Amino acid sequence: MAVRPILLYPDPILKTPAAPVGPGDSAITPIIQDMLDTLRASPGVALAATQIGCSVQIIAVDVSRKKGETGHGLVVLLNPRIRHQEQARIIREGCLSVPDYTGNVLRYERVVVEGLSPDGTPLTLTVSGFEALAFQHEVDHLDGLLFLDRIQSLDTDLFRRKSI
Questions:
Q1: Cis amide bond preceding 10, omega within 30
Q2: pLDDT for 55-93, tens place per residue?
Q3: Is residue 60 classed exposed, middle or buried when 0-12, 13-18 and 19+ CB atoms within 10 A define those classes?
Q4: Is the pTM of this model over 0.90?
Q5: Which of 61, 47, 60 is nearest to 14 (CA)?
Q6: SS3 content of the chain, % helix, strand, coil (to 5)
């Protein structure tokens, strides 16, 4: 379909909670394809529909795009929810929609995420490590949250990315 521009903060769509979707809705098929095309063309490992301007609850996560990571491969979830989380830790996080900054945020090492596959099959995944961080980050996007919202102190926990 198409590589879409990734919305950048402070675009208001990024701060708006997304609407649930039904797997039988034919309107989601082109959105999912555009998300996958956009993700492939980006340096990221995950994308929420809100980041391409569609305020619906769809995420795509593929941490195998990062060297040394495997995870579950490409996962597309509709209406995802984090159902369980354990082992809190502070990590440095970035975002395609906030390209100039990273920040220290509280995330969980292991999570259980539930949602629907695009064909409507219920999925429950237990994920850990970098993959768990990616799922938490993308579910936040669907709730209208950015990693900036999770930073304790903008003075000590927000960092400008170094130019290459």
A1: yes
A2: 999 999 999 988 888 899 999 999 999 999 999 999 999
A3: buried
A4: yes
A5: 47
A6: 30, 35, 35
Ramachandran sector of residue 97 (left: φ over 0; alpha: ψ -120 to 50; beta: rest): alpha
Nearest to 33 by CA among 58, 55, 8: 58
Which CATH number does 12-160 carry? 3.90.45.10
* 158: nearest Cα among 90, 109, 93, 89: 93
Tens of pLDDT, residues 99-120: 999 999 999 999 999 999 999 9
Contacts of 49 (CB under 8 A, 6+ apart): 18, 31, 35, 55, 56, 57, 58, 59, 142
Kindly list the catalytic residues. Answer: 138
